[in-house]
Amino acid sequence: MGTENLKVVDFDVARERPIHHAAAELRVLLQRHLDQQMKDHLAVVDDQLFKLSGMAKTNAEQTQYFEAMRYLRLEANPVRAQYALGVVRAFDEFWRQAAQRPAKPEASLSGAELSLVEEAALEEELAIKGMVDKGRGLFQRELQALDARLAHMAGRDEIAPEENPLSPEALCHALGQALRPLALDLPVRLLVYKLYDQVVVAALGGFYREANAGLIQQGVLPKLAATPRWVPLPAGGLAARSGEAAAAYLDGSDEGQSSYLEAFAALEGLMGDWRARMGLPSFHPADYTGPTFATGEVLSALNLLQQPGVARADAVKGYLHRQLRAARAEDARPIARREEDLIDMVSLLFEFILADDNLPDSVKALISRLQIPVIKVAILEKSLLGRKNHPVRLLLNALAQAGIGLDPGEGIAENPVFKRIEATVHRVLDQFDQDVNLFSELLDEFTAFMQKENQRSGVAEERARQATQSKEQMRIVKHKVAYEIASRLHGKSTPAVVRSFLFNIWKDVLVLGYLRRDRTPADWENSLAVMDRLVWSVTVPVDAAHRAELVNTIPPLLKSIKVGLEVLSLDPQAVVTILKDLRACHITRLSRPLEGAEPVPVADPAPVERPGKVEIRDPELARAIVDIRANLPDVEAFSLSDFTGLEGFQVEDIAAGIDPAAMDKARGLGVGEWVEFRDGGSRTRAKLSWKSQLTSTYVFVNRKGCKVAEIPLVELAKRLGEGGIQLIEGGTVPLMDRALHGLLSRLRESPPKEALLNAAV
Length: 761
What we know:
This protein has 761 residues and is mainly alpha-helical. The chain has helices at 3-6, 17-55, 59-96, 111-114, 119-138, 140-153, 168-179, 186-199, 204-217, 238-251, 257-277, 295-305, 316-326, 337-354, 361-368, 371-380, 391-404, 416-431, 437-489, 496-515, 521-537, 544-565, 572-590, 619-629, 660-668, 713-722, 735-747, 752-758; strands at 674-679, 682-691, 697-701, 707-712, 725-727. Helix 2 crosses helix 8. The relative contact order is 0.07.
């Protein structure tokens, strides 16, 4: 479609030529902007599908993404054409109906009606609605001005927001129509919508500002409201090249002053480009070549603004400019472009810090007060933005890391760590002029303080960890003992008296023997041998020789049991009772007739022993038996030499219903990472101190090293999935590293492809 055709707009109602021309120019701008955005969008979709195919866990999943990528490559041009056609058609239809108010869009479906909608279609509608809501929320001011100007051009008092042919509704539904004929699986469709949201919707602000500014230039309601001046979108290339240079710099090592300056120049290019796209004011016009305020004058003015409460963190540049002008009413000099860029960069860094959910609000409020001192350091030392070992960056990282473990609900203002953070911030505000060495001094002091704090908490943490390890060792031993007992009783009709004895009494002998096996291995082997002989001794004799062997075995067996029980320090009378019960069980078994023999009548026959049920009084042993009994059909498959605990019982067997993503998140949680336990309105922060590789038990401690929770893997995954536990994302990544990469992502919002691919550099 040529430019000449683009300038032809049909109207059913004749209007003045200037308005026609303004609409035609707006149509050209619309096509130019959205065509480029769709190119970037489909390129990002292609990259993301390729990445997902490489990360797929199954062949089917890999094939799904790879085929979708190839399919969309073939359909890219038709999709772009259909999308552009839908957007322009809606734009032209608006003008054809300019003289009459179109019918209002249909009301949303009711809950009952929604149930009749196909699930996939409903998912798409929800995705589109989310994009529309985001666009309206982000660009409400720009859209209101655009609504008013389009209504004026259409000869109406007002138009409904959804009637605007440039609204998020119109654009997002045009995408839905363009995707409708495509044979794409729902997950891929939702991915396309998600990336459209990030690439196109997020960049609509620049388009709306440019559209408003263009209409102002055409004389359409120029005095409607203060609208950012029209700054044409860049031709492309500069942001991408600068972004690559800055990304490489941020991820690289400290290589010398030349690399700092080169990377800083790249960030400056991104900063100016971003400020122009966002329509933000600049005190240094692009074509200005006259004198500017000297660096010393800027630093002196910043000194006055450094005191608490003088300047808001989000308006430093405006306060600074007024402060510089206050002493020289006739002075028209602007702030130098480099100082302005640095102020904007540091302001964006602190915006990220204030939005960081990892830090309690009170800690964020304290750190945010360092914004002006950091601006001063950035002006003095350009290397601040790249040197990972710069003392200012290290101090900010240390303050933030110390603050992560503070619980807002425990009286944070009285916490010694919080007080130290507060004292450090106040010293910077009170003492910092231009001597950056102050930050090195404060860093050394704060590091020494935290080392002492960590030593104290480390002692408590080590005790908690050792206690848990001891408990786990005992749990593993009891699983071992439970296995040894269960494997010997499996498939045998053993009297209840014997089973109760083994599960409730002899198990303690086995536990002690296993714990001492390194020093006295014979005790463990002897305890197992006694158990083997006892189980054999209560079998029913099959012939006279078997009975005779049993009769000869039982007395020394009972003696061995008595010797074994001595290590338990039981009451002597209790030992007598135990041995008496076992002897009675033996007599009952020996009294049974041999196979094929006639029963011998006796005056007082012994009662027939029945298996019966046995109560296991040790809860941990009982749980172990439950686990093991579920696997008893395969008991012979276990290798006793390899069995050390729960390896034979897969966690997945008891993890039915757990969200796989939550399970992966739980497994991937590393020692030292922080989480937040949420119970109603209560919030408690804790650090993963230790996790068992055998039983998958996770131990969490607070900042003082005291144990907060001891949670099995499955429960942790369940609570992560339900929101009862929240990961503190990025808690192990230094604050300034995250803030600088957040800055880079922000500056690379357009073209959005680079922002998506490099947001987490």
